[in-house]
């Protein structure tokens, strides 16, 4: 599987410099677009995690920005004029609950008891854009494709629960990833 984007530095609309209308409670909430190509033809579901390993020295843990599970590949729009097989559009995180209710989004690090944010699901259980406080950070997006959904994951799951479900499958998930940079 190959994951790509039309940028290597996350554009302002999806990160720290997002305009006020692209924020909720000061947090950037418009998810960035990306592409998924060369997916195993037997795969039927997508799952992903978007994290910030560079946050470990800053806050003591890898910041979780966005997790998604059980997204049916057939539910995604295919643009036959586009060279990419699957396109995740901008603002997919906020649109997904209405468009594809069977797909679930997990909690991000804003839901952590160590961060002290409110419990607004629009901030804690969807895309939470990069806002590096100290220097540019490298972010990691990993996507897995499976034949079966990950049973037992509900809205607001934790990333580790998704990892346990992926490891427990009777198949080896197809996977791919990309590193992106977020500016300070």
Automatic annotation (TrEMBL):
InterPro entries xref list: PEBP, PEBP-like_sf, YbhB_YbcL/LppC-like
Family: Belongs to the UPF0098 family.
Protein name: Raf-like protein
Species this chain originates from: Bifidobacterium oedipodis
